[in-house]
């Protein structure tokens, strides 16, 4: 009996202890401010109101205001096409701007509505129309297929029929309609304006700087659009973005300034993507909560390493079968020796024997060489071209990833050579 009581008490104290450590280590006070992108649009807009750092996008906000303020005097501005790399704040800036602009217009007695459609996962023409109808009237259904496109168009017309003001339509990643975006834009830019009484302003966002080049010139001509560029953030911008977020979301007493500097530096070295910076911040804070209870540069380094591994894992999972076989052949031939270097011929030998044991028909050495270039491009191996002057060029292939990682991801042991 005594023993049982003792066991119970020990478990109780274990629970208490863990709970206390967790509480002491807690850094995240308000998780919504960390992943605004996962929130529904309305909540996202209200969270953004507090964490959006407008100072950094002052130039773009000014241009937006210059472009759209004629609406306040009843004039109809042309469409707007907004270019910028991913994570440069296009979506955040536009959502922030339009929600405020709507308020200002209402104060002035001008009728302004806006709708937001997100095409960040590719859509067909039909499902883009469906999204649009739903963004204007959320009681509408989401159809897979089975009803004609014209019916979908009629629904959109119906949603706008009684509206006589200005209608801003924000289309996020507007180039992402497959097989082609032209039909959608023709409908929005040409057909729809003729069927409704409101005045439509299209605002299209895209990550592709060359999108315009692939567009039908006729579409460009009736869109009569203006352009706006979002350049990538630099380290100082990212630091400002992070600071504001940290104040809202985290227990600031447990966050070192050095850690934030480091995150900003990492993200700006890569592509200046604010999304990556926020992602790294979240990961680092989670690492800190599980270990030291304080966010320092050490936690940032650890988090950056795990993110890197996650990315590699993702990439390897999506390789096509021949690419995967090539990757396995390289690492099998390299073995666990980090300094070893191989020629294309050596990789080909390893590849050929792997194909034989897997019962796969091997590609030619020339095609294998293309596969190697591909893997090099994605940083899964290093393939340096070495010039021997007039004796031509050879390739020197070496490992780019730690052997333990590659061993785990590719299960190398399953393929005896
Ligand atoms: N100026 C900013 N202030 C605060 N957060 C920002 C800012 N710019 C971008 N972000 C954050 O970075 C992430 C990506 O931004 P987003 O606007 O979606 O980029 P894009 O649409 O250009 O790919 C979001 O979580 C967003 O909240
Ligand atoms: Mg976006």
List the defining traits of the structure above:
417 residues; Helicase, Ruva Protein, domain 3; Arc Repressor Mutant, subunit A; 5-stranded parallel β-sheet; two-stranded antiparallel ribbon; 16 helices; 7 strands; 11% strand; binds adenosine-5'-diphosphate
Distance between the termini: 60 Å
Determine Rg (CA atoms, Å). 27 Å
Looking at CATH, the homologous superfamily of the largest domain is P-loop containing nucleotide triphosphate hydrolases
Question: For the largest beta sheet, what order do the strands appear in spatially?
Answer: 2-3-4-1-5
Average pLDDT score = 90
Mind telling me the CATH class of the largest domain? Alpha Beta
Whole-number count of domains: 3
How large is the count of helical segments? 16
Strand content: 5-15%
Q: What percentage of residues falls in helices of 4 or more residues?
A: 40-55%
- Give the low-confidence spans: none
Question: What general outline do the C-alpha atoms trace?
Answer: globular
| Number of E-type strands | 7
The ligands found in this model are: adenosine-5'-diphosphate, magnesium ion
CATH topology of the largest domain: Rossmann fold
Q: SSE order, as H and E?
A: HHHEHEHHEHEHEHHHHHHHEEH
Class from helix and strand fractions: alpha/beta
Main sheet properties: 5 strands, parallel
Quick structural gist:
This protein is of the alpha/beta class. It contains 16 helices and seven strands. The chain has helices at residues 2-25, 41-51, 58-68, 90-107, 125-136, 149-160, 182-195, 217-223, 235-249, 257-270, 274-290, 297-317, 321-334, 344-358, 365-377, 403-410; strands spanning 80-83, 112-118, 166-172, 199-206, 226-229, 381-387, 393-399.
């Amino acid at each position: 009996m005594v023993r049982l009581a003792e066991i119970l008490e020990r478990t109780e104290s274990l629970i208490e202890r863990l709970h206390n450590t967790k509480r002491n280590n807690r850094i995240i006070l308000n998780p919504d401010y960390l992943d605004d992108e996962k929130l529904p649009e309305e909540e996202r807009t209200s969270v953004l109101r507090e964490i959006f750092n407008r100072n950094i996008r002052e130039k773009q906000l000014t241009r937006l205001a210059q472009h759209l303020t004629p609406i306040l005097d009843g004039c109809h501005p042309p469409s707007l096409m907004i270019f910028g790399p991913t994570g440069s704040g296009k979506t955040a800036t536009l959502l922030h701007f339009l929600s405020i602009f709507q308020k200002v217009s209402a104060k002035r007695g001008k009728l302004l509505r806006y709708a937001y459609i997100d095409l960040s996962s590719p859509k067909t023409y039909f499902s883009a129309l469906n999204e649009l109808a739903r963004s204007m009237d959320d009681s509408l259904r989401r159809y897979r297929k089975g009803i004609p496109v014209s019916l979908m168009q009629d629904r959109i017309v119906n949603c706008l029929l009684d509206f006589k003001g200005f209608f801003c339509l924000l289309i996020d990643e507007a180039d992402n309609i497959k097989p082609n975006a032209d039909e959608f834009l023709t409908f929005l830019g040409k057909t729809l304006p003729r069927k409704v009484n409101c005045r439509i302003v299209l605002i299209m966002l895209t990550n592709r700087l060359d999108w315009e080049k692939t567009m039908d010139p006729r579409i460009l001509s009736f869109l009569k659009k203006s352009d706006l560029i979002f350049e990538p953030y630099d380290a100082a911008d990212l630091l400002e973005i992070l600071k504001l977020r940290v104040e809202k979301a985290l227990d600031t007493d447990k966050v070192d300034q050095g850690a934030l500097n480091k995150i900003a530096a990492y993200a700006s070295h890569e592509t200046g993507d604010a999304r990556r910076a926020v992602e790294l911040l979240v990961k680092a804070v989670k690492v800190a909560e599980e270990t030291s209870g304080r966010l320092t540069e050490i936690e940032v380094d650890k988090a950056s390493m795990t993110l890197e591994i996650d990315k590699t894992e993702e990439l390897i999972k999506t390789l096509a079968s021949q690419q995967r076989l090539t990757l396995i052949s390289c690492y099998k031939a390299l073995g666990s020796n980090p300094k070893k270097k191989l020629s294309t011929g050596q990789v080909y030998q390893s590849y050929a024997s792997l194909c034989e044991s897997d019962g796969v028909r091997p590609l030619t050495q020339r095609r294998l060489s293309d596969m190697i270039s591909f893997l090099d491009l994605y940083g899964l191996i290093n393939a340096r071209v070495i010039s021997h002057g007039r004796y031509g060029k050879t390739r020197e292939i070496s490992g780019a990833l730690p052997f333990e990682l590659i061993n785990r991801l590719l299960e190398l042991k399953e393929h005896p050579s």
